[in-house]
């Protein structure tokens, strides 16, 4: 990148992930926010869309084409739903922009798997096999060279970070893994829907998409790469009456007789150079990660099983925070830049 500060645009700037991203970028010493988009044609000021940003960012959200975005910004963050991201990526890349996509459009390598789980034909399928999966803790060696980074999903980040050290070292069996995960309602986005109304979520706890959630193949794909073999995961998400936060409780079959202390050592060694993963002696909870880019992990052996626990903020480490880690990597900056909580 040519300047000390990299010009950035946020496409889909009126949603929750974008709000969180803008909050992080505003304190980032190497990012200059130059453009925000919405499909609305009344060009709302960002402070009217995200009141928390009042007085901190003087920009309007505009209905801009990919060509206009690429002309203004060196890096474009896509905070749009799946389907909408692949509609703009080819033009953005052709115009020379680097792209960090927060949606699921480029996470799966196989277009047939994408079509099966997203009920949508991929319109840019040729790019899928080579797109870099933006989980820096696993792929920080290849992310810096990428023009397009596919940011991971929120449940998937928690699940993959929890299981990768144990699968990589052969400490657990790659089949029969159960991920039981809970998320706050902001994980469903800002677009109003019945299931996330206050009176539906408040004082309630419910599972959804049992066995057929779209994050299941994403978790299996990433972990198969780590394990060097097919990985079989049963994933059950739950909606909890919180704004934000994910807790995943994961059950696996041990592949040997290692105890809790040995497995904790394995996890600590695996993440020794990963500033945003904290391996705890105690049990993680969402509150300790709220508003931060940390993923808190621990592991236990109990009744012949290995139990791994992971907590993170779905909007930060699960979305906007990891996007900024990726931004740092593709612009040649230290991964922690813009994250005072990690010394950056
Ligand atoms: N929320 C979370 O915890 C996480 C979200 N993600 C992913 O990040 C992305 C953004 O999520 P989130 O912020 O929660 O979603 P929101 O629903 O809160 O925001 C979506 C944004 O996309 C815009 N948008 C909606 N549909 C289209 C379309 N067809 N074309 C162009 N723009 C569109 C909306 O803008 P407008 O209506 O003003 O045009 C809005 O700015 C999604 O892909 C989501 O799956 C990933 C990990 C975690
Ligand atoms: C609570 C809730 O509804 N969460 C969302 C996951 C959010 C996310 O990471 O979505 P993408 O993979 O689409 O980016 C869901 O279950 O669909």
From TrEMBL:
It holds the Pfam family Semialdhyde_dhC_1. The gene is argC. Pathway: Amino-acid biosynthesis; L-arginine biosynthesis; N(2)-acetyl-L-ornithine from L-glutamate: step 3/4. It is found in: Cytoplasm. InterPro entries: AGPR, AGPR_dimerisation_dom, AGPR_type-1, NAD(P)-bd_dom_sf, Semialdehyde_DH_NAD-bd. The keyword Metal-binding does not apply. The keyword ATP-binding does not apply. GO terms for cellular component: cytoplasm. It comes from Alienimonas californiensis. This is N-acetyl-gamma-glutamyl-phosphate reductase. NCBIfam families: argC. CDD domains: AGPR_1_C, AGPR_1_N. Residues 7-146 form the Semialdehyde dehydrogenase NAD-binding domain. It catalyses: N-acetyl-L-glutamate 5-semialdehyde + phosphate + NADP(+) = N-acetyl-L-glutamyl 5-phosphate + NADPH + H(+). Belongs to the NAGSA dehydrogenase family. Type 1 subfamily.
